[in-house]
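Key idea: predict the complex, not the pieces.
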Amino acid sequence: EPEVTQTPSHQVTQMGQEVILRCVPISNHLYFYWYRQILGQKVEFLVSFYNNEISEKSEIFDDQFSVERPDGSNFTLKIRSTKLEDSAMYFCASSPDRYQPQHFGDGTRLSIL
Amino acid sequence: AQTVTQSQPEMSVQEAETVTLSCTYDTSESDYYLFWYKQPPSRQMILVIRQEAYKQQNATENRFSVNFQKAAKSFSLKISDSQLGDAAMYFCAYRQPYNTDKLIFGTGTRLQVFP
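Result:
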């Protein structure tokens, strides 16, 4: 069964650095999402992306964050000037349309030192 | 704003027994979707079951079934004939079908299965 794949599985970065988290959504899916889960807390929506633009974003998703679909397969989340509180598990998800369930990747654990 | 509450941080069940995980939600909408996702130690969140609010019939997927009580805003997950592989974190999630794509998650229930 097709899967959403995320790389790397674990990223360790110094505070203040930029980090790019990568995702390969399922190939025929058109809607892409990023969520994050701070340790011990609930999974939170960050952003949704469709037709090469952001369709919705949460209040968490400020100017520090950006998303991009640089080619036909990858979907990236860039975090600039990382802070300690950005440490979390980041999940990518995709769906064929907005009415179908979202399929999640394994997540990237981001640790900011 | 919509919220999802899972009041059981941890549950345990003996293999082959039945366990029910609770979920309540708050919304003023009449049309929405509800989901249960499973997150085993391997981390990938897997869709377990889905319920459309307009359907009165409770969704069932093999050993997994839900008890959807729309008036009470309750959406519990029943796992029958529990297996060791059912051990995971279970998240309840809510989504409106219109104007938004985001899933709203509960805090999760960690299920342990004992042999």
